[in-house]
Amino acid sequence: MANSGIVEVACIDDNISIVGGGNSNDTLPQLTNVTMRACNGIIHVIDEVILPADKDCQTFDDLVCSRDDLTQLCLLFTLVKTNPMGEKLLNILSNNATTVFSPNNKGMEALVGGIDLSDIDVIVNVLSYHVVLDEQILEMDVECNEKLEMANGRKTATQCERKYKKLKKIFQVGDGNTGDLPRIIEMDIFTCVGVIHIVNQVILPSDGEATAVPSSHQTGDATGDATSSLTSDGSVLVTSEATIVPTYNLTNTLSVASSVTGT
User: How far apart are CA 31 and CA 15, in angstroms?
Assistant: First the structure.
């Protein structure tokens, strides 16, 4: 293959599979449509991602912590390892098919600057709102206006911006995001079992309550158009200057671990 890895063509029960060294027996990529002609080549459609052998791939946390643009996210995942729910979330990301919308350092500045790093439960819930369980959503699978259920039980929306009918920008938006929305700026970064898309803002949920951001808690986001912070009771606020905005509480929303791991 283009990455110097080797795949195997396997015929199983009248199905043809293209198998990478990292594919298990229950994730064999089967050919579903063959010989689709493009202008400069041929495309074969498969129903799973071809995964390289373990030695050729990185776990989620290894990949995040190896990238210079994700050091703030690496910091938060390092912190949550000490928490049982955080440990379960990391275990899911390392061993289950997932799609993760990972905020880059610029997007994380407001959150890390205003979050209480001693409140691990809050951090876990923030991180879980960036994770889709049991599914690898690739760039080619993106559907505009689709609602995705995240690991904390809340939903985000895929929003698209077009120019002259051509897709220009894709956003993954939480119901608490206002102003500049989380834009997907890099897609299809593969871990051993999942896929990561880089976003330039933190994805924020909201429970619909309205309150003002105290000036002592405000911190700027990636562009300066909106601000976000965590208050002492674990509520996150997002606002632009002199605006009344929704808040949300993240302390009781993580539902992923028991349902996925059976613990």
Answer: 7
Nearest CA-CA partner of 169 in 156, 155, 182, 179: 182
Q: What is the pLDDT of residues 129-172, one digit of tens each?
A: 999 999 999 988 899 999 999 999 999 999 999 888 788 899 99
- The dihedral through the CA atoms of 105, 106, 111, 115 has a sign that is positive
Nearest to 234 by CA among 220, 215, 248, 213: 248
Residue 113: which pLDDT band, with cuts at 50, 70 and 90?
A: low
Please report the domains of the chain, with CATH numbers, ordered by start residue.
8-53 (no CATH), 58-203+250-257 (2.30.180.10)
Nearest to 229 by CA among 123, 148, 114: 114
Query: What is the C-alpha radius of gyration for the chain, rounded to an integer number of angstroms?
Result: 20
Strand partners, 45: 33
pTM over 0.70: no
**Type and span of the H or E element at 187:** strand 184-190
Is residue 177 within 8 Å of 168, Cβ to Cβ? no
